[in-house]
């Protein structure tokens, strides 16, 4: 078949777009990586898993074989320096997020860092500064934000269908207290329920209101049997205009992950706000309606958004400054929980 010059150029461009892939490396073999993020990247339109690293080479090789990853490294230093990797995913314990994100960015790699992005806002700002200096993309791994239902929910709130926004209630709890050696129960490693799951309703409230809270008050169950981390926390974030987030989070309670957005004339109920079925319900003056959602892999959506940000194919929705702001809220919640006082931001 004969092609004109313009047809040949167009077909070549299409072929490049179809085959273009962001090459990923993973630092560590954490459960969240193995169960969710790696399969998500492999299921994405834009990404391919090139390598995985562990400080135990045998563990890296075993994980690579299990998940079909071509290369395994026995050190984090090797994978960060590898020339055939474009982006690094960091699912390490919280106290290692800053160190290995910065090492990767200084090696010219883009970084997707597991939530919470750091141990505090100061660390998060240092990471954001390095990203800006190196000209690389840095993102925090809140996968739920990439599901289209949250854009829909924001539009419903803005439309006035549930009236004026009055409050938000969020939960995220599970029971893992019997696993005493879990990294979540090391306080110096960034353990505790606020870091691990409380960060979700905190980020969701900021996303829905489009504002930053002015103060935080949190009461927590501090467990001496779990290195004095907060095993359960309940709190309130004060947003402008009298709006508040009430939330609870825990690692020693029955499982739930819910979100309710309350207005003067109705409410939006999200039974599985972060993981699970994406269906939600709108209660308004016209009654209750169910909004069903397609089965979408949030981790794949996250990987695709990340790649398209790297390639400048779409605007960045969640810049590093958002992660810094969320860490300020987490800092305030932790300070309030341990000091048992209201903390202003």
Automatic annotation (TrEMBL):
InterPro entries attached to this UniProt entry: Gfo/Idh/MocA-like_OxRdtase_N (IPR000683), Gfo/Idh/MocA_domain (IPR050984), GFO_IDH_MocA-like_dom (IPR055170), NAD(P)-bd_dom_sf (IPR036291)
Pfam families: GFO_IDH_MocA, GFO_IDH_MocA_C3
Alphabetically ordered keywords of this record: Oxidoreductase
Keyword Oxidoreductase among UniProt keywords: yes
Domain Gfo/Idh/MocA-like oxidoreductase N-terminal as annotated: residue spans: 22-140
Top-level division of the source organism's lineage: Bacteria
Similarity-based family: Belongs to the Gfo/Idh/MocA family.
Protein name in the entry: Gfo/Idh/MocA family oxidoreductase
